[in-house]
Amino acid sequence: MGNIGIWQLLIVVLIVVLLFGTKKLRGMGSDLGSAVKGFKKAMGDDDKNGEKDQQDADFKQASLSEKKDESEIITPKEQEKNKDNDRV
User: Fold this and answer.
1) What is the model's pTM?
2) How distant, in Å, are the alpha carbons of 13, 21, 24, 37, 44 from that of 30?
3) Nearest 5°: CA angle at 24, between 13 and 33?
């Protein structure tokens, strides 16, 4: 009673083709295929990223002493602003 035969499947396919049309079914199939392909690519990218160092961004990591040295550097624009603020 629960078995679906080949004839029942053919009737269902025929009804679906009549309702949607072959162009729409082809478009839906290609959209579904590209979605699955994109999903697989994203999963593969995550696997490749998992093997890396787990860095969030591509930048040079500096120690605290290097950061302190960089913060002490005053650009010429900042010097002019400081002079203007001192005059007021």
Assistant:
1) 0.39
2) 18, 15, 10, 10, 21
3) 85
